[in-house]
Amino acid sequence: MKIASVEQFFPRHRTRLVKITTDTGLSGWGESTLEGKPESVEGAVRELADYLVGKDPLRIEHHWQHMYRSAFFRGGAILMTALSALDQALWDIAGKHYGVPVYKLLGGAVRDRILVYAHWGIGSLAEESLAAARERLDLLLESGYTAFKSGPGGKWRGHEPPAVIDHFVECAFLMREWVGPEVELAFDFHGKMTPALAIEICHEIKDMRPMFVEEPVPQENVDALKLVSDHVTFPIATGERLLSRWEFRQVFEKQAAAYIQPDGSHAGGITELKKIANMAEAYYIHVLPHCAIGPVAFTSCMHVDAVIPNFLAQEQVDWALGADILKQNWQVVDGHIELPDKPGLGIEIDEKAVSNRVPYQEELGGEHFYETDGSVADW
Ligand SMILES: [Mg+2]
């Protein structure tokens, strides 16, 4: 069996897919969505496809090594996203070839269903905003979700006046009041705080018992992350922008975070996500794979979630469940998704629905990336 073609699809403004087809007619899907750099990834997939066509699709580790190491310059979000998508598609083909779900090829499931958490929060105490938050919470609770994540929205400077901090803190405590003590609440600081401001806010929200705070500071400086972790009594999480075991190494060795959040479509695909999780296990670090893009990335994460003992919960955004792309959407029951039993990734793509090329758009306009004085702000 040889790889015959690699095609790319652009079905939604933030969903890009690759499809690998073999000369025996098998096909596998991966997700190559990268926020902000869609055309660069498209080019990277094309370059890697030149290598893959004609090769045996079942030599996944060998191809991973080639795609990562052979060009001398390695890593980075663009190459790693392209590599991740192709890796996922190769696993999909392997599962279909052997007639088993991917997780069976990864050592077999250690759990029967995957706990997912949804995005929900109270962003403002304004009446309209509270009504919208209430409505969404009721909807999510009906599906049985038991964990939610939100964040301090908007731009945050090096320090903010008490009114800004207090408003966020008040929203956080109100969220706890609404959901009660049985539900987990987490906050994503989006890497836009300084260590001092992150620590100050974490101290303020400590008594509403968050599950974790994610990316309190940007990802480049592990010592700054450790500074936050050392001053906060609840778990700190990071990792959606760390792109391989080598980028996670310092987080592990310094015990700089309690939880890691590698992304199945940016950190090197199914192959590397499992290795990162296995490495974390030795440090008693749990894994909450990041997924804020489409259903193929989400499904790929779930196959790894199934086989790693140190899995905690899977991030899920509404459109990751499949709308308009999968022939059958994932169903959340009691806050969990049952493991797929079909071969490969266990999903069927609606090829007609994904065949239109939808232009890429950022979710927010450029003005959101600037402070009132005109300087650049973290989003
Ligand atoms: Mg995040």
Descriptive report:
Helix 6 links the parallel strand 5 and strand 6. The chain is globular. It folds into two domains: 3-101, Enolase-like, domain 1, CATH 3.30.390; 104-341, Enolase-like C-terminal domain (TIM Barrel). The model has no long low-confidence stretch (mean pLDDT 95). 45% of the residues are buried. It is an alpha/beta fold and 379 residues long. 38% of the residues lie in helices and 14% in strands. Helix 3 (77-98) packs across helix 10 (269-281), helix 7 packs parallel to helix 8 (222-231) and helix 10 (269-281) packs parallel to helix 11. The strands form two sheets. Strands 4, 5, 6, 7, 8, 9, 10, 11 and 12 form a nine-stranded mixed β-sheet that branches. A three-stranded antiparallel β-sheet has the order 1-2-3. The longest helix is centred in the N-terminal third of the chain and has 22 residues, at 77-98. It contains twelve helices and twelve strands. The termini are far apart. Bound molecules: magnesium ion. Magnesium ion binds at residues 188, 190, 214-215, 240.
